[in-house]
Amino acid sequence: MEIVFALAVGILAGSGIYLLLRPRTFQVIMGLSLLAYSVNLFIFAMGRLRMGAAPIIDPARGSDPALYADPVPQALVLTAIVISFATTALFLVVLLASRGLNGTDHVDGREPDQE
Q1: Residue 41 lies in a domain
Q2: Is residue 21 part of a domain?
């Protein structure tokens, strides 16, 4: 499971970086979103990938940390998802305003010369 998870994080990060290097602003925004998702998955994986483990300590099972999932990365990822959603919405509004003012959606603000 760890290999599949690592491949997913790597593919998302690679795709995000590729889209960040594109000349159109919408592709840059999608690249930032993919990069944020890959970082979220990486943070989530730092809390140990355990299936069926409770994040809350059960007095009947004892307090051995190996029996439980770490709830802190889960809370961090949930917060990061909300923040990335808000920043993506803000970027899209700025994209629409920039396209309305400049008439283009290139990152540098002008179309390449057509020859």
Answers
A1: yes
A2: yes
DSSP letters, 43-99, are: HHHTT---SS--SS--TTT-S-GGGS--HHHHHHHHHHHHHHHHHHHHHHHHHHHHH
pLDDT digits (tens, 9 = 90+) for 99-110: 888 888 887 767
Please give the model's pTM, rounded to 2 decimal places.
0.76
Residue 85 covered by a domain:
yes
Structural domain of 92: 2-50+69-102
Considering Cα of 33, then 35, then 72, then 49, what sign does the dihedral take? positive
Please give the single-letter amino acid code of residue 86. Answer: A
Cα distance between residue 25 and residue 95, in whole Å: 7
Q: What CATH number did the domain enclosing 21 receive? A: 1.10.287
84-104 residue pLDDT tens: 999 999 999 988 888 888 888
Contact indicator for 5, 41 with CB cutoff of 8 Å: yes
